[in-house]
Design a protein that fits this description.
Layout: H1 6-19, E1 49-55, H2 60-77, E2 80-86, H3 88-101, E3 107-111, H4 114-117, H5 126-135, H6 141-147, E4 158-164, E5 166-170, H7 171-176, H8 186-198, H9 213-224, H10 241-254, H11 266-274, E6 280-283, H12 286-292, H13 297-302, E7 306-309, E8 321-330, H14 337-348, H15 350-359, E9 393-394, H16 404-411, H17 414-423, H18 429-441
Parallel strand pairs: 1-2, 1-3, 8-9
Antiparallel strand pairs: 3-8, 4-8, 5-6, 5-7
Length: 446
């Protein structure tokens, strides 16, 4: 196997950065000022009330500030707002049911591409999204992808945030392996992981059907080599030389994993990391805060040694991370469309949004560029690597369009199981890529 060298990565990255403004290194972006833009005038309906369905909390501060901001809205506008929370697994079927029967919640903070399944049932939010984009420096490209209907260009949803994984690592052990920090090139990263394992500190990425963690690193792996599920015309292209090279690298990387990672689900790497069984993994900022707030003195002390870094960059020469998007949508069946849009506007304005972002401790990332200046990203230097999770991310159906087919492939773990089959020695890269192609074509029917 010919791996991508550090020199190649540096040369490619420098060339890409020369023209990159959207997906380059977060540290190179200038902060954007908030502009004085007239807000749209929504005449809130008399006697309006709203039902909001959102994901159950991942961090307590998210829910606490969301409910506080909702209460502020109700007091200011006289609109009663009931907020219901559902687990990851239950949010999608509840959203689908409301769309099918045309009743239920007015607003849903849906997952990622869910609004695209019900585009004809979504209220047009173009005026609201345009206002917020003009005021707050514009939306990140991935946000526009998830918010806009590719057929009409209208905003059928409005992402309010997203979460993504970074490489979470024990700095003292990385230093012990001879590195000051994780390398940003693939060969250097693999060398570090091999040395960590040799010293008794293996890394571990989820290889089971982990909705968040396995999808995150497996998609990064394919994308960073230039592979993609489909092309721009939604033709399945996963069986490519780029994918096969990615799978070869993935197998080499998996050889540095701790035993048992092949069956890990989303909670598994958190537990292994906090137990001191692994030196690094892909995760949100939650591991750091779990350690920082632990009642166990040994775990609490670990927080000082926990650092975060972006995943390395491969032949494509730019970040290719994955993000989970919280995508707000308003159903057309709402009796109070003006109240619904005013509620979303209110929640996204700086007075409400920045406190919510701060309370979310860096777990949720901002979709509007001006929020780069939010205090959460500078109050603790360990937050900074999560500052541009959305700026660095590609969408789940990359390079194709969002919709039923892409959602089905994700739900069927086609990419994750392809990577896992090679990583565990159950299939060759060529066989695994062919099988992924066969499975994907079941959903992408020509």
């Amino acid at each position: 196997m010919t791996l991508f060298t550090r020199r190649d990565a540096l040369q490619t990255s420098l060339g890409a950065l020369a023209g990159a403004t959207l997906l380059g290194s977060g540290n190179l972006r200038a902060e954007v000022a908030v502009k004085d833009v007239p807000a749209p005038q929504y005449a809130v309906e008399k006697g309006a009330s709203l039902r909001v369905l959102r994901p159950a909390k991942f961090v307590q501060g998210d829910e606490t500030l969301f409910l506080e901001n909702t209460k502020k809205f109700s007091q200011q506008y006289g609109v009663e707002v009931k907020v219901d929370s559902e687990s990851w697994e239950d949010l999608r079927p509840k959203t689908a049911t409301a769309a099918a029967i045309g009743s239920g919640p007015d607003i849903v903070l849906a997952w990622s591409d869910d609004p695209h399944k019900f585009a004809s049932r979504c209220l047009d939010l173009t005026d609201l999204a345009t206002y917020l984009g003009e005021k707050y420096g514009g939306w990140w490209p991935i946000v526009e992808k998830y918010g806009q209907d590719p057929k009409t260009g209208k905003w059928i949803a409005m992402p309010i945030g997203g979460s993504g994984n970074r490489f979470v690592y024990r700095k003292s052990w990385v230093n012990e392996a001879g590195y000051e920090q994780p390398p940003r090139d693939l060969d250097g990263f693999l060398d570090m992981c091999r040395k960590l394992k040799a010293k008794g500190h293996p890394i571990g990425f989820a290889l089971g059907n982990a909705v968040g963690d396995a999808n995150s690193w497996c998609h990064w792996l394919i994308w960073t080599f230039g592979g993609a599920l489909t092309d721009e015309d939604n033709k399945v292209t996963i069986n490519s030389k780029e994918t096969i090279e990615a799978l070869k690298y993935g197998k080499a990387l998996a050889e540095t994993f701790v035993a048992g990672a092949a069956s890990w689900l989303d909670p598994s790497n958190n537990k292994a990391f906090l137990a001191g069984e692994i030196s690094g993994t892909g995760n949100g900022i939650s591991i750091y805060y779990a350690a920082k707030n632990s009642q166990d003195p040994a775990v609490k002390a670990m927080a000082e040694d926990i650092y975060h870094a972006a995943m390395p960059i491969g032949p494509v020469g730019r970040p290719t991370e994955r993000a989970l998007i919280v995508n707000s949508m308003v159903f057309q069946h709402t009796k109070y469309p003006n109240a619904a849009k005013e509620y979303l506007r209110f929640m996204m304005e700086k007075e409400q949004y920045e406190p919510w972002l701060t309370a979310s401790i860096g777990y949720w990332n901002h979709p509007l560029k001006a929020y780069d200046g939010a205090a959460i990203w500078s109050v603790d230097p360990k937050h900074e690597p999560y500052k541009h999770v959305l700026a660095d991310a590609l969408w789940d159906s990359y390079k194709g369009t969002l919709g039923e087919a892409s959602a089905a492939v994700l739900a069927d773990f086609v990419i994750v199981q392809m990577v896992a089959a090679v990583a565990t020695g159950q299939a060759t890269p060529e066989d695994a890529a062919r099988e992924a192609e066969r499975r994907a074509k079941r959903y992408y029917k020509s």
